[in-house]
Amino acid sequence: MLVENLSDTFEARTHDPKQGRREAIRLAFALLGGILVLNSWLATEYFSNYIDKEAAQLSALAGAVILGGPIFIAAVRDLLDGKIYMNELVTLALIAAFAAGDYITAGAVAFFMVVTIAIEHRTAIGAEASIESIIRLTPRRARRMIEGKEEEVDVLELAVGDICRVRPGENLPADGVVVSGTSSVNQASITGESLPADKGEGDEVYAGTQNLTGLVDVRVTRVGTDTTLGKVKDLILAAERSKTPIMRMIDRYVGYYTPTVLMIAAMVFFFTRDLNRVIAVLIMSCPCALVLATPSAIIAAIASASRLGVLIKDVAHIELAARIKAVVFDKTGTLTEGNLEVARLKPADGVELAELLQVATSTEYHSNHPAAAALKRLAKEAGIPWEDPDRYTEVAGKGVEATYAGSVCRVGRQSWLQECGLDTAAVSAGLGEDDTAGMSVVFVSRDQRVLGWIGLRDAIRAVAKEAIAQLEELGVGKCCMVTGDIDRVAQLVGGKIGIGEIKAGCLPQDKVAYVENLKSQGYLVAVVGDGVNDGPALAAGDIGIAMGAIGSDVAVQSASVALMNNDLRRIPFFISLARRTRMLMNQNLAIGLAFIVLGLHFATLGYINAVVAAILHSLGSLIILFNSARLVRVGEELQIPNPDAPATRTP
Questions:
Q1: Which of 119, 85, 79, 91 has the alpha carbon at shortest distance from 250?
Q2: What is residue 62's three-state secondary structure?
Q3: Total tally of structural domains belonging to the chain
Q4: 149, containing H or E segment
Q5: Residues with catalytic annotation?
Q6: Distance CA 64, CA 272 (A)
Q7: How many Cα neighbours within 13 Å face the side chain of 210?
Q8: SS3 186
């Protein structure tokens, strides 16, 4: 192949600082070879009476050898690897030109092929640079604190637990937690958001993000490939190695292509005895443009998506996303901010507010649910202590049960407590929709007594309504919401953001069944969730999209696509990008096929010579690369401050 897997190029550049120097040397030799060939052509065409003919031929020979050498070496390597592809076709054309003594033609053909290779290595006019900018974000050196003194070390020497000092303007060397100092951190490299996040003691920070304002000391929690940036890099490189169905189809039949072309070339030579015509046929048959058609568009799409914090694990998901007709959203943490706040406490007769909150908080001690965090925040503000329970059990989609102070305590849905044999009638009497409008209600019990209920409220994301409207504009037939919350809360949220189809009171298995039902109706379904609690539903969808995946190993691994921020507008952007990518791939394939078919036709008839064939070959590749490059800047309008991004430090 003229161009090997692009991800190998990225990895080589990431780990080999001499790669740029080698490319510069190759470019210098290409220019030298081009000058020698041009010199020979000028001498032959315009100064033949003044310059020795053999000297001109020698100049062309030297230029052709310099330019054709790398192609010949690549062809030999391909043959040793058991591959027969484009390098072999070009090499045969060069050998034929050398055999005919036409060194100027050989040099010109080799020059245009080398130029094409150089352009292909740059990939979609900036896509490679965009991806490399993400991969290269982690600094090489770090300041490790040893007994209060700074020690400059290689980043690879850092270990979990080390304390690093990061000055303003520097990139963080590893994931960690701020132990002292405050600062604003630019996380755009990972989340795609331009609004800096304020960081203080106890806040998480991520490798590759930029410290903007203050001096901070950070305790390292993840290093190397375990960091968030390391996982981002691995996902990008894995996406580049993956292939779309069209790419796999081309790979499947590529083994038949070269023998077919050789047969055509042999037939042309048999009937015409014109070696120059054979060379033109071999050059025009090189399917460079056709092979670039899909990868160039895919790489440009990956670059555009990665810049906005949309990580695609397999490029096959791009083709799937282009055909999505239904999007299923989780509510809490997806359509809403997920930062629940206690809106109301209603104790039973004879129960104090402090007792209700203490039992609820102690029962939820080990829970990571947003409701547990809200209860702990309120208890901390009120000065009410909570304790570690003796035994803790979480019942998926229903609530939690713990043994606290010798009693069995439960916090969860009213229906679950009723299943456990508890009478909630006295506490829920008079509990109307007006009392709990927009709230999620959990009931609290100790042993066989219901202590009361707690109402929690969650704010709707500012861009949720805009994102739903954009999906509808894209022709997504169904925007649905499935949630474990009660129906009146779900209906209130759905009404405010424009979602009409709502399924409330869902357990995890109910969400999966809902998705499977949509798929059975012929819909291609994307499921959007937080990647942790919605794992089964994410896996059930044709495409799973994990929201807010920054720093979350589970979220990055559980979905087809990981959004490194909580901007819901990234979802219609991703679907729109997928559709544009599919359209450009089809355009590129049509252009590539047209150049090959028409080029072979005119080369066979003798209307174009070898040099013109080489120029047309380069032109076809350029057209495809520039066409694909249109994807690189898609979505730049989203690189504005996200309304959902916190402007101040959050606890």
A1: 85
A2: helix
A3: 4
A4: strand 149-154
A5: 330
A6: 26
A7: 14
A8: strand
End-to-end CA, the chain: 54
Please report, to the nearest 10 degrees, the dihedral formed by the alpha carbons of residues 619, 620, 625, 628 taken in order.
140
Nearest to 47 by CA among 39, 58, 35, 59: 39
Domain hosting residue 221, numbered range: 141-226
What pTM, to 2 d.p., does this model score?
0.68
Unique residue bearing structure tokens 């050398």: 98
Q: How far apart are CA 439 and CA 436, in angstroms?
A: 5
Count of residues for the chain? 651
Instruction: Split the chain (651 residues) into runs of 10 and give each run's mean pLDDT.
Output: 38 48 72 81 70 77 83 80 69 76 76 68 49 60 85 84 88 87 76 70 83 87 70 58 59 69 86 84 78 79 82 81 91 80 87 90 85 87 86 85 89 89 80 65 90 86 90 90 82 87 84 90 88 71 79 59 84 93 90 88 87 82 85 72 42 31
In whole angstroms, give the CA distance from residue 603 to residue 612.
10
Q: Are residues 324 and 354 located together in one domain of the fold?
A: no
State whether 125 and 253 are in the same domain: yes
| Calpha distance 169→185 (Å, rounded) | 9
| Inside any domain, residue 573 | no
Say which residues have a Cβ less than 8 Å from residue 556's Cβ, sequence separation at least 6. Answer: 231, 235, 311, 531, 546, 549, 562
The sign one gets for the Cα dihedral 451, 457, 458, 464 is positive
Residue 65 DSSP one-character state: H
Q: Same domain, yes or no, for 21 and 123?
A: yes
CATH number of the CATH domain containing 442: 3.40.1110.10
The C-alpha atoms of residue 416 and residue 262 are separated, in whole angstroms, by 73
What is the Cα Rg of the chain in Å?
Answer: 32
One domain, residues 330 and 477: yes
My answer on whether 442 and 358 are in the same domain is yes
Q: Give the single-character DSSP code of 335.
A: I
Chain centroid to CA 602: how far? 43
Could you tell me which residues come within 8 angstroms of residue 274 by beta carbon, excluding any fewer than 6 positions away?
Answer: 268, 606
36/215 Cα distance (integer angstroms): 57
**With contact defined as beta carbons under 8 Å apart, do 213 and 200 qualify?**
no
What is the tally of helices (H) and strands (E) in the chain?
22, 22
Contacts of 450 (CB under 8 A, 6+ apart): 348, 417, 422, 423, 424, 426, 427, 443, 444
Same domain, 35 and 92: yes
Q: Which token pair is 277?
A: 């015509």
Question: In this structure, what token pair is assigned to residue 254?
Answer: 């590529």
